[in-house]
């Protein structure tokens, strides 16, 4: 319901702080952005991990060129939610209301990648549900992409 509530608030003239995921459909995200532009208001999606001290230190090292030119970035996330987590609320683990671990947990790492290196373009990927048969969604994914900024553009 993030899109519905965000758009309503924007139309009333409010700036919006939106919990992640911003939306579970790209069309909804695009509409939210358009509404914010039309209303001349800001949407802030909660992605607080980019402000963690280790991330800030890496950002500074990249900006100073101390780490050199990155050629490859590998991110692993081993977070897990057990059955109790999904049973706490009926919306958890549903495609329309939750979005799955790639939206709710791993999206923090996607945000950090974007924050540190700019847009990444996915070339291939796969998702699968290995250990959570009680959800409608995947619990694992692998993606390959490109799009690192040129050296010196940090």
Description:
This protein folds into 2 domains: 44 residues, no CATH class; 77 residues, Dihydrodipicolinate Reductase, domain 2 (2-Layer Sandwich). It contains 6 helices and 4 strands. α2 links the parallel β1 and β2. The mean pLDDT is 88. With 154 residues, the chain is an alpha+beta fold. The protein has a two-stranded parallel sheet with strand order 1-2. A two-stranded antiparallel sheet has the order 3-4. Helices cover 36% and strands 14% of the residues. The longest helix is centred in the first third of the chain and has 14 residues.
The DSSP helix count reads 6
CATH topology value of the largest domain: Dihydrodipicolinate Reductase, domain 2
The structure class reads alpha+beta
The H/E string reads HEHEHHHHEE
What is the molecular shape?
globular
- Which range best describes the helical content: under 10%, 10-25%, 25-40%, 40-55%, 55-70% or over 70%? 25-40%
What topology does this entry show?
Elements: H1 2-11, E1 16-18, H2 26-39, E2 43-45, H3 53-64, H4 83-87, H5 101-104, H6 107-117, E3 121-128, E4 140-146
Parallel strand pairs: 1-2
Antiparallel strand pairs: 3-4
Helix pairs in contact: 1-2
List keywords for this structure.
alpha+beta, 154 residues, globular, 2 domains, 14% strand, Dihydrodipicolinate Reductase, domain 2, two-stranded antiparallel sheet
Q: What's the short version?
A:
By secondary structure, the protein is an alpha+beta fold. It has helices at 2-11, 26-39, 53-64, 83-87, 101-104, 107-117, and strands at residues 16-18, 43-45, 121-128, 140-146. The longest helix is centred in the N-terminal third of the chain and has 14 residues, at 26-39.
């Amino acid at each position: 319901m993030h899109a519905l509530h965000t758009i309503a608030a924007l139309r009333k003239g409010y700036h919006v702080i939106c919990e992640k995921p911003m939306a579970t459909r790209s069309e909804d995200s695009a509409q939210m952005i358009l509404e914010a532009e039309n209303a001349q208001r800001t949407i802030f999606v909660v992605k607080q991990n980019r402000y963690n001290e280790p991330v800030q230190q890496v950002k500074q090292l990249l900006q100073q060129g101390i780490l050199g030119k990155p050629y490859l970035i590998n991110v692993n996330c081993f977070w897990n939610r057990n059955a109790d987590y999904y049973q706490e609320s009926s919306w958890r683990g549903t495609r329309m209301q939750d979005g799955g671990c790639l939206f709710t947990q791993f999206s923090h790492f996607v945000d950090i990648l974007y924050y540190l290196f700019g847009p990444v373009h996915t070339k291939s990927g796969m998702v699968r549900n290995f250990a959570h048969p009680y959800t409608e969604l995947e619990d694992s994914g692998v993606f390959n992409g490109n799009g690192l900024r040129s050296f010196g553009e940090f």
